[in-house]
Records
---
Amino acid sequence: MWMILMRGIPGSGKTWLSNYYVEEARKLGLSSIVRSTDQFWMKTGSYVFDPDFLGEAHKWNQENVQSSINACVNWVIVDNTNTTAWECQSYVEMAANANYNVAFRSPNTSWAFDVEECFQRNTHNVPFESIRKMKERFQSNKNIANHFLGKYKNKYSIGSNFNDYSYDLVTV
C-alpha cells in the first residue's frame, strides 16, 4: 500500500504524472485513486477558486484521502503542490498511521521549475507571482523525506528508489 505525494509548482506536470500512476496501477491490477484539493473547486465542470475557502478545501481533501485509506486503496495519489514539509504533514501522518509506504514524486519535465513555462501551462490560472513564490519555497524530495524519516524513525526507512524526482519511505 502506497501513498504517492505529488510535489511541484502549478503547470509542472503533476496531474499528468498522477494519471500515469493510475494507469500503471491498473496494469498491475491494483486499485488507485487521485485525490486533489483542486477537485474541491470544480463547480459544474469549471474551476472556481475562492481563497476564503482554502482551509475548508484542504480539510475536504484530507477527509477524502483518509476515506481512500480506510477503503484500502492500493495507491492513494495526492495531487497537490506539497512544496514544503508542513504541506505534506497531515498526509504522511495518515500514511504512517495506516502502515502505508510514502512516495514523494515530482515531475521530471524540462520545465518543472521554469516559472514562466509553468505559468503558461497551468490550467487553473494561478498568478505568476504565486507560482514564483511556490518555486522559492520548494523543498527537495530528499529534504522532505529526511524530515519525515526523523519524525517517524521507528516507522520508516529510506527505500531504494531515490533521485531528484522521487524519494520513498518504506515501512520497517
---
Amino acid sequence: MPKPVRTARQIRNKKLQEEPLKRAFLRAYTVLGTTSAAAKIVQMRYHRHLRWLAKDPEYAKAFENAAEVHRLKKLEAYEKEIDRRAIEGFDVPVFQGGKLVGVKRQFSDILAIFRTKKLDPAYRDNFNQQINVQTNVQNNQIRVVEDGNWYDNADRLASGSADKSDTDPPV
C-alpha cells in the first residue's frame, strides 16, 4: 500500500511542532553533554537528532553552538575544581591502627603549577629550538650547515666535535 502524500500544510505543521522539541533537546544537551542523555530527557529517539543534523543546516549550527557552550561550562567546572584542590586543598583521612584518627589537609602542587602556567606566560615552558640543517654532496663528501656554518661531516664524526672555523659553504 503506498504512503499517503502529505500536503504542504501538514509538512509545515510538523516542522512547527518539532521546533520546541529541537530547542528542548539543545538545552538538555548543553547541560548533560551527551546526545543520548538529552534525547532521553526530552523523550525522543536519538535518531531524530541525527536526522535533524543531516537535513537542517540551522539545527546543525545550533547544535555546534550548544556543544561549544557545554564544553565551556565543563571547562569552567574543571578549572574551579583545580583551583579548589590547588589553593583551598582537600581533606584526606588519616588512619592509625585501622581506625580513623583525623584528617590531613593536602594541596596539589602539580595542579597549582599548571594553573599558574595557564594564567602567566612567564611560567610556561617556552623552550623553542630551531635547527637549520642543509646537506651538500660534492665529490663524495658530505657537508652539513648548522646555524650558518658549514662542516665536513666526516671530520666532525671522527673528532667528536665540529670544527667551527669553516664558515663558507662548499663551492
